[in-house]
Amino acid sequence: MKHSQSHKTQREVVISIKGLYKSFEDNEVLKGIDFQLHKGENVVVLGRSGSGKSVLIKIIVGLMRPDRGEIEVLGLNVHEAAKKELRELRLKMGFLFQQSALYDSMTVKENLEFPLRRNKGHVSQPEIDEAVREVLDAVGLTDTADQLPSELSGGQQKRIAIARTLIMKPEIVLYDEPTAGLDPLTSYEINDLINEVQKRYKTSSVIITHDLVCAKKTGDRVMMLIDGKFVRQGDFEEVFDTDDERVKGFYDYNFIQ
Length: 257
Hints:
Largest sheet: 6 strands, mixed
Oligomer: single chain
């Protein structure tokens, strides 16, 4: 289990959100939330399905515009940035989709090479080969380079998707429901891998989930999103040490000992 690092010396803020609102017609999804991610920190955003967790991630990467609020990522105001600035910022961010989103017609190696070839045209083949070897080693799948995604298990596909994120050496990684659809043992392995990535690559991460085991294992800090607002934050025990029936109900319904 991880513990809150809030008592440590104040660290650099890599994501800063103030007063964020987002509605879809009459449905208020985010209602004035504030959020910070510090360098080297894993922050888990917990909430029920439809609570606005994925909307938050899309706003952070500039795929969706807020109704109002300030969003800064690595010092850049995301929604005032020019297209070129936003493109360069996204190269510093890794985004792990809920579905692994691998290209079915490409081998694992080709899937991993693709972001390098698309975004860094000057990289030589030996450099690409070395980068592929490194990230496959990082996720423990060095023997899968020539396989197709369809030949891999769901957990292996998730690992390869993480490797593809890492190959660009991102400063920030955004995980959208990283354990969704996985059996408990594979989920456990993915949680360990998220922590290993944090240590090995010194990443700062936002982990969107409703999986309390994932939250407990990976979060330096946990933030609970209910009815469009963060109602609790701290380490896992702090968040759930409350008489708030909404938070207790979420715990009772979801937690697996």
